[in-house]
Design brief:
It is a single chain. The protein is an alpha/beta fold and 270 residues long. It has one domain: Rossmann fold (3-Layer(aba) Sandwich). 42% of the residues lie in helices and 13% in strands. The chain contains 8 helices and 7 strands. It has a 7-stranded parallel sheet, sandwiched between helices. Helix 3 runs parallel beside helix 4 (105-132) and helix 4 (105-132) packs parallel to helix 6 (156-180). It is globular and about 65 Å long. The N and C termini lie far apart (57 Å).
């Protein structure tokens, strides 16, 4: 099926692995020109760009730095033209479980800045480019998390950052983008546990996986390609032309996480 993405231009942040890399591969199958971003693993996006059968540029930037973010988008526009689609995928998930009473301000601020402020800066630069372009159709897909939907115990920093961009930013920007690109759309995708480096070693902990999958109708960890195909769908000006402001969870039907084991509950205690 024609997605309408052939010869379009897409920017993918955090493209050096996992969901970002899988998204680049899916876009490439549609003939989309790509601008691939990485912060630290440039050799991986260089290898990816050389492998993909489409026109690709690679970019290194600290997306928490407004100057570097602006410079990257200027480079992309100069080389490829104004992007038709932006996928804000770059982010971190601190592995250490820390309850709020023990969480340092340093960790809180780092997570908020990396996962939330970077998306603001990328979105701002993208909208500025759209304002100066003649594009009628444009797409922003924000990569959130099921932590935004359900919360995540001992990861309040991460769930807060993702909730902000998933709900507040997506639903605000879907109105703003239409003011400058009449057919512009903004949506969010919320992956659950996905088989990526960022999810290690948790996805290899059999007991944790069993507990988590007890709340999933589809009893399997997601694959990056499954999320990537959803991102491409939402970016498509043909398949999702009337879809905007939506938050699409890709998590096998997750309904949350178990809080207690059966052995921990005494039904006689009120």
């Amino acid at each position: 099926m024609d997605t309408g993405l052939n010869n379009k231009i897409a920017v993918i942040t955090g493209a050096s692995g996992g969901i970002g890399e899988a998204t680049a591969r899916e876009f490439a199958q549609e003939g989309t020109k790509l601008a691939l971003h990485a912060h630290t693993r440039l050799e991986r996006i260089d290898d990816l760009a050389n492998e993909l059968p489409v026109d690709c540029t690679t970019h290194q930037a600290d997306l928490t730095d407004p100057k570097e973010t602006k410079q990257m988008f200027n480079q992309i526009t100069s080389r490829l033209g104004p992007p038709d689609a932006l996928v804000t995928n770059a982010g971190i998930w601190p592995h250490e479980e820390v309850p709020i009473q023990d969480m340092s301000l340093e960790r809180w601020q780092k997570t908020i800045t990396t996962d939330q402020t970077s998306v603001f800066l990328c979105s701002r630069e993208y909208f500025r480019i759209l304002q100066q372009s003649d594009l009628d159709s444009a797409s922003l897909v924000i990569v959130g998390s099921t932590a935004a939907v359900f919360g995540e115990e001992n990861h309040a920093d991460y769930s807060t950052a993702k909730a902000g961009i998933t709900y507040g930013l997506t639903r605000s920007l879907k109105n703003e983008i239409a003011r400058i690109a009449p057919q512009g759309r903004v949506n969010a995708v919320c992956p659950g546990w996905t088989n990526t480096e960022m999810a290690e070693p948790e996805i290899h902990d059999a007991e944790k996986v069993k507990e988590t999958l007890q709340t999933w109708p589809l009893k399997s960890i997601g694959e990056p390609e499954e999320v990537a195909r959803t991102i491409v769908f939402l970016s498509s000006p043909r398949l999702a032309s009337h879809v905007t402001g939506q938050i699409l969870t890709v998590a096998g039907g997750m309904e949350g996480r178990l809080l207690h084991r059966k052995s921990d509950i005494d039904p006689s205690v009120e």
